[in-house]
Amino acid sequence: MVLKLSPASSVGPIGSRISLHCSSSSSPPGAIFLRRRRSIVSASSSAASANSSRSSSPAPSLSDLVWPSAGAFASMAAMSVLDKHLQQKGLSFLIAPFGAVCCVLFATPNAPAAQRYNVLMAHMGCSLIGVLALAAFGPGWMARSVALSASIVFMEITKCLHPPAAGLPLLFIDGPKFHHLQWWYILFPSTLGCLLLIVMVSL
Questions:
Q1: Is the pLDDT of residue 69 over 80?
Q2: One GO biological process from the UniProt record (predicted)?
Q3: Contact predicate 15/9, CB 8 Å
Q4: Looking at the 3D structure of the chain, how many domains does it have?
Q5: Using CA atoms, how far apart are residues 80 and 99, in angstroms rounded to an integer?
Q6: pLDDT band at residue 60 under the 50/70/90 scheme
Q7: CA Rg, the chain, in Å?
Q8: Same domain, yes or no, for 177 and 135?
Q9: Are residues 74 and 169 located together in one domain of the fold?
Q10: DSSP for 9-52, written as a single string
């Protein structure tokens, strides 16, 4: 409640009258609704502009499509041939993370995750973590959870973030066919395979 004095020449000997004007310290509901509506419209406009900028970006050239896919094709073909020969000796070389590594190296060669230090350091470190987790906890949910979280911490501390490597500890823990490798799992198959892929992408 706010008191306001307004002059009046015809009322009372004092020559003024007191008029009461009720005002609220908060905004009326209509103003609040308008502000919310403006914020929603503004957010929608920002999202629309972001989508339009993505849609207006130039389409990739033919070479940008052919060379990465051709490199990935040749690399996977060569690694499949090597895997076939190693299987005769009881070794498994071809693993699923190589598909993600191929995508990173050939499709985004300038990305931080595609740099040689990131690739090799992440694969060696995460493979080691998988071996240690299995030795400490045995196969099961605890080994998987500890190994995955430790791999993320390792890549963050060493600044070698390479997402495909995060699957290596799980591959070792849940893959009995790799258990006989023990400490050699640090180098085979992931690190050796990444070396071959780095050579292929450098050609």
A1: yes
A2: nitrate transmembrane transport
A3: yes
A4: 2
A5: 12
A6: confident
A7: 33
A8: yes
A9: yes
A10: SSSTTTSEEEEEE---SSPPHHHHHHHHHHHHHHHHHHHHHHHH
